[in-house]
Every structure is written in structure tokens, then in C-alpha cells.
Amino acid sequence: MFADYGQILVFMLFAIAFVAIAFFVALFLAPKKPSYSKESTYECGEDTEGETWVRFNVRYYVVALIFIIFDVEVVFLFPWAVVFKELGLFAFVEMAVFLIILILGFVYVLAKGDLQWDKPQPVIPELKRQIFKVDSN
Amino acid sequence: MPDINTILFYIFAFLIVSFSFIVVFAKNIIYSAVSLFVTLFGTAALYILLRADFLAITQVMVYIGGILILLIFGIMMTTRITDSEIKTTNLSSVPAVFVSAGVFVILIIVLLTTKWNINPPVENDVTVNRIGNLLLTTYLLPFEIASVVLLIALMGAAMYARKK
What is the reported pTM? Predict the structure, then answer.
């Protein structure tokens, strides 16, 4: 098992070396003729608008929090999946109970409308009082 | 010539400590968050050196894949990024020094009084099998309680995030 992680280490080293070599070769070999259009921020050919660091909408936070919970749940699924065949139906029922309890939470969140993407509610101006009489005919 | 484990341990320990310094001292909080990635990843590597592969996977899954993302999300959503760069400031450095010194002393005491059990690491095959077996038989109740705890966390998070 331990030697398998050596492969990951080698992979990581290669990834770092690949980026570093490409970076430094470009640094030394590429001709440098900076111009306005080369230095400007690239945004798919469009002119950039506003700051790069935009403030994210708070709506994403709920989704992120719920994601964390199910992320932790997946960690429990790993050891279960490995021994599932050995333990058979027993393990299946156990995991079913585990999942049902968590799905209960998901249903709660859904029912409470926390995942509802609250859309902006524009106030449409409406005529409350008619000042001028409009002749219908 | 020290063996490969020792060399790797020192490399990863050096990475963890140096990037932890960046986490603490970086002026821009986004740099802190990104440096935290290396720290957490190095910790996962240490778990692998301790032959705890499941713990390492969990570290990558939960801490890097989840909590770090949540931290960066939090930074991106709460601070007024458009006004100025997000700077880390220390508002109460005097109490912080006392607390840190206290924690440092406690850690040193623990370090000196612990009887370190130095054994060569036991060469397990994949630990996930045994963890799965124990989790579904001996430790079934904690396993099911874990789901209830997660449920409570989910509902609590949703309640806090909800608009009043």
C-alpha cells in the first residue's frame, strides 16, 4: 500500500517540474516586447469590466455549507463500499439508515426553501391615483 | 544515509511549518488561505508516512476539498473586496501574545513529558477494509450517531444562513 503513494509523489514531482520548467524556459527564451494590449487583462477578448475580485453572493454560502455536510458523508461511504460485499444485506441496511437520516436533513432544507434561489423582486410602479381623466371614447 | 521516510518527513514538515508562517503572517488574507492548502496537504502526506491512508484521504477530502473552499468562500463573501485589498490586522496583540505563549509552554510540557513510542511503522495493507469492518460491526452505534450529528449540523447551518 505504501509504495502506491510513491507513485503519487512521483506524479506530484513531475507536475511541479513540468510547470517550473515550462515557466523558466519561457522566461529565458521568449522575446519580451510588452505593449498595451499584451499587458491588459485577458477576458476572452472583451474589455474587462469592474474589479477582478468581485464579492460573491451570500446565496452560495448555504450551498457550500450543505456541500460540506455531504462531503463528510462521502468519507463514511468509502469504508462501507470496500466491505459491502463481505457484510452483505446487513451493511446495506446500516448504510440505508445512515443515508435516510441525512436525506431527512436534505428534505428539511428543501422544504424550508433554503436552496431556493431568491430572485430579485423588482417593485413595478403602478398607478395608484389617477390625476387626469382619460376619455375612453 | 537516512532512509527515504525520514527525508520525506523532513521535507513535508518543512513545507508545513514554512507555509504555516505564511498563513499567519501574510498581509493579504487570500494568500493565507492559499498557503493553508499546502499546510493541509502536507499534513495528509504526514498521515501517509504514518501508514494511515484513510486518514490522509479524509484530510484531502474534507479539509482541502471542503473546509478550505468554505474559508475562501467566506472571505469572498464577507469582506468588502471592491473597496480595498483584504488586509489581515491584529487588533489585540497583547492578549494574543499571552495566549500563544501559554499554548507554547503547554505544548513544550507535553512534548517533554510524553513517552514517545518509537516503533517502525507497521506495514498494513489497505486500512480502509478494517475501518469499514469495524465501523459497520463493533462501532455501529457511533457510526449511526455520526449521521445524526451531521443532520444537526446541516439543519443548524441552514437555520443560521436563513434570512431572518
Answer: 0.74
